[in-house]
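Bug report

Summary: structure tokens for CoxF protein differ between web form and batch submission.
Environment: batch mode, default settings.
Steps: 1) Submit the sequence below via batch. 2) Compare with the web form result.

Sequence submitted:
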Amino acid sequence: MADRTDYVRLTPEEQKRRRRRSVALALTLAAFCIILFAITLVKLGPGVLQRPL
């Protein structure tokens, strides 16, 4: 089987767009996790942080 070396070359503008999309996706995912954590804390009540481990 022959090696494939004909990869797609992105232009600098395409690389910038890809980077922005990746950052936006990471920030969205982080915000979603923070929202879920906050909702969990609210539902469990304020005593959840004072319980013994």
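Above is the batch result. After comparison, the two runs are identical; trailing whitespace caused the diff. The chain is about 60% helix and 0% strand. The mean pLDDT is 88.
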